[in-house]
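Exercise 7b. Backbone tokens:
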């Protein structure tokens, strides 16, 4: 069973408390919803994305619009980049977002898994030259490495694919890989799914050198023709809400994480971002998750993230629901 099969199982069983999916429960901003209501036509657009949106993204990152490609969700951007670098092993730290594994299987990308540990606060260790995927704040652990460690990884790498989707939900300083390497060495992948609570609209982007962006654009053209035009226009015209959203999401999920962990009795590294916690359960994460499912609570087993004896809990329910769930988790035996 993979993560998507497990998700389908959860969907069929429909437990009362869903703490599995990585979908923020903070509603989308009204400004964005109003723009979506006004858009009645959804024509094809350019493969690199609409200029209006690319200009807003470029201004945010202080790059040229030609150094931006809009994609069908962050995952299409990740797929385009892994496809481009598929001819040599790509280094990946575990625990990791399982989507990387699925993309790598489809395109035959060899992955060099580098294990981190809870005892070392999930801190990554530089592993020499090569292509890396990094993801901070990390899904599922929520950690952000020290600046010194992050800098060392980027400086040693030949190229870095930096998944920065969760920098919109950061409880502490969360630097970008671009702080340590230029566009010739780094590709940032981001998404509006978490920032604006619109995962179903499938809208992400990549920021990198013109040569890398050309390869991303070619991938988009070959797979989806173009990103969805209506969502692009709506996001471009409500772009000014993003910084407000960053502060709102970070506050809400920081408060929930602190309250949930204060009640949880399982060992867990305090997250520095995201809306996840990743506690150790001391037995098979899959078996533990199945026991919780029988008690009406869904979480994801750490097995899918490269850490067998953990579970990922998504803090996407009201605080009172989360605290009751912590009681159930605390009282669920491993065997």
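Sequence design result:
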């Amino acid at each position: 069973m993979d993560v998507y099969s497990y998700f389908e199982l959860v969907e069929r069983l429909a437990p009362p408390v869903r703490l599995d999916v990585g979908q923020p429960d903070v509603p989308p901003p009204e400004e964005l919803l109003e723009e979506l209501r006004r858009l009645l036509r959804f024509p094809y657009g350019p493969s690199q994305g609409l200029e209006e949106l690319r200009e807003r993204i470029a201004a945010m990152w202080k790059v040229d619009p030609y150094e931006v490609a809009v994609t069908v969700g962050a995952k299409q951007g990740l797929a385009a980049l892994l496809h481009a670098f598929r001819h040599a092993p790509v280094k990946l730290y575990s625990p990791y977002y399982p989507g990387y594994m699925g993309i790598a299987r489809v395109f035959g990308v060899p992955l060099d898994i580098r294990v981190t540990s809870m005892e070392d606060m999930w801190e990554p260790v530089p592993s020499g030259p090569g292509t890396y995927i990094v993801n901070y704040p990390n899904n599922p652990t929520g950690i952000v490495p020290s600046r010194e460690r992050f800098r060392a990884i980027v400086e040693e790498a030949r190229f870095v694919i930096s998944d920065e989707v969760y920098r919109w939900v950061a409880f502490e300083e969360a630097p970008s890989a671009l702080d340590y390497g230029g566009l010739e060495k780094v590709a940032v992948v981001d998404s509006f799914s978490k920032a604006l609570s619109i995962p179903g609209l499938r809208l992400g982007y990549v920021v990198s050198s013109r040569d890398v962006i050309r390869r991303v654009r070619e991938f988009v053209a070959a797979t989806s023709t173009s990103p969805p035009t209506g969502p692009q226009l709506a996001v471009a015209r409500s772009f000014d809400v993003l910084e407000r959203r960053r502060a709102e999401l970070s506050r809400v999920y920081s408060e929930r994480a602190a309250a949930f962990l204060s009640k949880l009795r399982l060992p867990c590294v305090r997250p520095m971002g995201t809306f996840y916690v990743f506690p150790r359960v001391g037995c098979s994460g899959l078996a533990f998750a199945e026991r919780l499912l029988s008690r009406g609570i869904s979480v994801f087993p750490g097995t899918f993230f490269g850490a067998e004896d953990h579970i990922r809990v998504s803090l996407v329910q009201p605080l009172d629901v989360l605290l009751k769930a912590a009681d159930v988790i605390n009282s669920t035996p491993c065997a």
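Instructor comment: The chain has a mean pLDDT of 95. The chain has two domains: 3-27+243-330, 30-239.
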